[in-house]
Amino acid sequence: MTENIPVNENSLFEEYKQTGNIEIRNIIVEKYYYMAKVLANKFLNRGVEYDDLLQVASLALVKAAERFEPSMENKFSTFATPTIIGEIKKYFRDKASTIRMPRKYYELYPSVKGAYETLSQKLDKPPTPEEIADMTGDTPEDVIQVLEMVRSGNITSLDEEFDEEGYSRMEAIGDEDPAFDRLETKDLYDRALEALDENEKRVVEMRYRMGMSQKNIADEFGVSQMYISRLEKKIYHKMRKRLESN
Amino acid sequence: MSIDKNAISIEIPTVKDYSRILRLTAAGAADACGFDIDMIEDVKVIVSEVFGSILGTGGNGAVFSFLPNTGKLEINIRTYNGEPVLKGANEMTLPILQALAGSVETSDVGGLKLVIEK
Fold first, then answer.
1. How far apart are the CA of B95 and the nearest CA of chain A, in angstroms?
2. Which of A78, A97, A116 finishes a domain?
3. Would you say residue A60 has pLDDT above 50?
4. β-strands B61-69, B72-79 pairing
């Protein structure tokens, strides 16, 4: 069958329209796959991993290939680009509401703040966004956005004074008592951990003991941030179920 | 191209790294329009696309002028050398701009006007 497939762009689409041959559609998709990659790249840094964006863009590309009318004057790229962008934006609206940008910046805030303080002491001057970004592994643009959100009040600093006597939110929260923590929670923690497999235990260790972000854990495991987010929910339910059964 | 007295204008040389400065300015202007985070990000993609096109022409720079209004952002762009702003665009640039901006108009002197509305 492959040897009869036309090579010209329009004849590919015409042949596909007439025959519905999936093999031809796949050749079209392969030919224009670069568009899915380019467009997925345009929507990075919005709290969704590249792999997930590429998957959405690729499915949209398939849809576009199936719907394209070669008799129309438009080129396929002109037709497919808004289709793919539309699907990516729909994905952001429908599926990614829990990992939108604000959350991303909320997650970045502690590491940016920590780096700011460490570098201020080390350099004996306020660090630049680039220096903070080097330390946290984020982009300077993200660092600036986080600092801007703090300034605009979208993120409330724990150091901010919240009453007339100058007490900060951090002081109001108070310190954890490590001894209490050891005595009261270690037993519960160990029992809840028994419900988890080795990978899940490793995620708990990285997330809550080592303080790693979901993104860093995802990178460590070679999976998407969404996967770690879902796994965390699963871990939470398993641990809670184990404690309830005890 | 006349520039409104309430517009925020930035003259930007064709230095690839300056794209970040342009994106931040655009984000600030979009924020002043009351756009949500997604729309602000769209505006950043739009200006990056246009700047990428200008970089592709090999010219020495451009003027981006942002006119924020409630729920509406107008962006006017012209190159220093008068070359059409989208001269260096690739096949996807215009469809991307059309998909993300409500209105894309090219002027007869090579300028580009984009309007993004809530």
1. 6
2. A97
3. yes
4. antiparallel
